[in-house]
Write a structure and sequence with these properties.
Largest sheet: none
Shape: elongated
Structural class: mainly alpha
Distance between the termini: 20 Å
Number of helices: 6
Radius of gyration: 23 Å
C-alpha cells in the first residue's frame, strides 16, 4: 500500500523510482542534502533531547534546590512554581511547533 502512495506523491517517475530504491535499501549512502538539512534545522532539539536523557538536568536541579534551601530558604519555590511553569512552557512550545509544521495540502491538489 505504501508503494502506491509513492507514485502519487512524486511528480515524475524517475524521482519515484529513486525513492523506492531508498525505501528498500538501495540508497548508496545514508546522508543526502535533505537529511543534512533536516539534521541542521533540528540540531538544537537533538542536543536538548540528548541532554535531557541524561541525569545532568536532575543533578543541576538538585544542586540548585540545595543552594536555594541553604542560602535563601526558597526551596518551595522550585517545587511549587518553577516545575509547573517549565512544564507549561514546554507544552506551549510543543504545540507551537506542531501547528507550525502541520500544513500539508491535500495530496490530489498537487496534480
Amino acid at each position: 500500500m505504501l508503494i502506491g502512495w509513492v507514485f502519487f506523491y512524486h511528480t515524475d517517475l524517475s524521482e519515484a523510482f529513486r525513492f523506492l530504491g531508498v525505501m528498500f535499501g538501495n540508497a548508496g549512502s545514508f546522508t543526502g542534502s535533505e537529511v543534512s538539512l533536516v539534521f541542521r534545522e533540528n540540531l538544537i532539539f537533538i542536543a536538548l533531547a540528548v541532554i535531557a536523557s541524561t541525569p545532568v538536568v536532575k543533578i543541576l536541579f538538585n544542586r540548585l534546590k540545595k543552594y536555594l534551601s541553604t542560602n535563601t530558604g526558597m526551596e518551595v519555590f522550585l517545587d511549587d512554581v518553577f516545575k509547573p511553569v517549565v512544564n507549561v512552557a514546554i507544552l506551549i512550545l510543543s504545540i507551537i511547533f506542531l501547528v507550525g509544521q502541520s500544513y500539508n495540502p491535500f495530496l490530489y491538489f498537487r496534480f
